[in-house]
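Example record

The entry below shows one chain as it appears in the dataset: sequence first, then structure tokens.
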Amino acid sequence: MKLRIGKETFTLMIVLMLMPVISILMFEHITISETLGNMDSGAFGVAYEFFEIEQDDYRMQELFDVMDDFRQKVAVISDGEADGVKVRSIYFNQSYVNLPMKNGRFFSKKDLIENYDCAVVGKNLSERVYQKNNKKYISIAGSEFEVIGVIGYECDTILDDYIYINAFSQKKVFQSNLYLMDMLRVKEPDELMENFVQGMEEKGIYVERLTGGMSFFNAFVPRILYSRWFLAALLCDVLCLVLLSLEWVNGQKKEICIRKLLGATTKNVLRLLGKRYLKIMLLTFLAGELYCAIFHAGYMRFLLAGYFLIIPVIGIPLICAAVQILKTPLEEAIK
């Protein structure tokens, strides 16, 4: 059973290629909207708390080792100034929020390592960026930082005038023992902070907890509203794919029944039909992966998970439709 590009096949391939792209763009819009809604507070999680490290001779690695032991998502930021520009150091233990990027990307976990001076700059500071050895750099407090991305949204935001740097490089740029713990996905914020203080004390570093707060309205309520729309759109996508797939199977009715007439078993017909559909899925999957790798590398794992989840969802109706066609009288099917 060769893969012929008929009307049903062509339509199915186009939809399978477009839906991941549309879903990724929609998911990005939802997460960026959530981020913009929390931007003024400086913290993007469900809770935050300021703390101060009482001594100056601590290593940043010790602070981050304690954070990495947490299973819940947290980030630590510290604000300073250098060369008349606002600088924010950042470290997170899993992933950060989806910030609106003009070009490039935001930090990933693998960027936040020792001896890697990297930065993400606000769009109003992009004129300070210069090219060197096919890479982009910015000079901050006499140190050269590789620029991996530029933050920027259609409208102006407070982040347009910030330079984000790898927190391992903070002491090269500014001195500050004041930090903000941004609890991105935490169920018990107070318990987490107690564990954090205890973990730091075990390393001989003493932390004073300062002020903090919860962000239920800005973080929790919007997430429910946005998630509802996202789930509704996702269900529509799945329903559309199921209906198109059933129409595609129905388009194979005559060929299936002819094969059955020539002696093919039900198992062989279903196997051939499955191979043909998987070829379509593979071609569209490669196209979606290529788009995602170029424009939205951070969503690669979500795209992979989406394809693996959708195969059984579509597969069951396909098998049922094919079996129903096989039960159709041959005289009726080949008319």
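Notes for this example: The chain has two domains: 7-31+221-333, 44-214. Residues 101 and 151 are 4 Å apart (CA to CA).
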